[in-house]
Amino acid sequence: MIRSPEIFKVLQTAPLFQGVPSKLLILTLSESGLRTLNSGEALLVPGQVNNVIYIILSGRLSIQTKDSGVEPVAMLGEGECVGEESLIGDVHIPAYVIAATDCKLLVIGHAALWELIDSSHQAAHNMLSVLSMRIRPANPIMAENHEFHHEFSGTSIVDEMTGLYNQQWIEEKIDRCLHRYVFDKRPSCLMMAVIDRFKELGEKYGQLGSEQVLRDTARTMLSCLRPDDQAGHFLGEQFAVFMPNTTLADGCIAAERLRTAVSVSVVVLPSGDALPPISVSLGVSLANLDDTPASLFARANEALQQATESGGNCVKWWDKDMERETAQLSADIDTALPVKPFMSLWPVAQPEKQKSPRTADKR
Fold it and tell me: Any idea what DSSP says for residue 275?
């Protein structure tokens, strides 16, 4: 089963298997099975005894304290695992694991995974890392979730068409993330994205074409983001992504990565016809200590408007954010000099070819 190129590609980048030799993966996981879930279907429920580990090959899983109508404790995407706690003993499932979208999963038995861990120090290290990351934040997040879930009782938090969070939920999530990350003096960014010439696509290819573009763009977005990034679908062709623990420079790198991925993607209609290449415009803003969701959205939207007015298919950021982050970099340069691959953000590093400090390179 693992010999499928698509499955093997996911496993190579999965946190649980990064750095593990390919031949060892094929040898130990060759008998693993597949499982599919429809959107809304439960994979695991509290109190259930589980004896396998699931790797997400496509789609998203929601970790929840209730089976419906509550904010997820976490959302897991392609390459991530669930059920790994069962490997350390007779541990009952502490929360609901629900398919937020249609999902395809690789099912790995304990015997196969222990064989892999016994054969690879890297696999053992990866498993410890995954377990520690899951266990440490679980209690405070779940406690917060119990207080918050009443506000969303009986309401949907996921946009059915795209599988992303809906507008109401992402706005509430950003409000709480601002308190959690910005007040702790951890940098965070908001990225806004819009599909270029979306109205023209709708006029030419109809509702089916428009919806397929939205679904494919959302899928591409999820493949480019980290598990902690919070992505939402707003009305029409607009999306928002809150990126915690992210400097403005890194936020622009993430936006450029998404722009590039969308530009090379191919949207195919149910009829089998391929649409012309699509593109997105993106605006990025760094969160301030005194920000509200409204002020942060306003700056990101202004950057987004600059991107669309520049012809689209580019990344822009809020100018004063750049000045503020550059000033902070100068103040901290004696203690830490960060390496930024997105060098066009730092004009002083390129005195011979000064690029516009507001437009990301279209690589």
Answer: P
pLDDT digits (tens, 9 = 90+) for 100-157: 889 999 999 999 999 999 999 998 988 887 776 665 444 444 444 444 444 444 456 7
Same domain, 121 and 178: no
Please tell me the distance from the alpha carbon of residue 283 to that of residue 307, in angstroms, as a whole number. 7
pTM attached to this predicted model: 0.55
Residue with tokens 């003993």: 89
- The C-alpha atoms of residue 20 and residue 352 are separated, in whole angstroms, by 43
Rounded to the nearest 10°, the torsion over CA 257, 342, 184, 135 is 50
- Domains: count for the chain: 2
Which CATH number covers residue 17?
2.60.120.10
Treating both helix axes as pointing N-terminal to C-terminal, what angle do 167-177 and 293-309 enclose, rounded to 10 degrees? Answer: 120
Share of the chain residues as helix, strand and coil, in percent rounded to the nearest 5: 45, 20, 35
Kindly state whether residue 193 falls inside one of the protein's structural domains.
yes
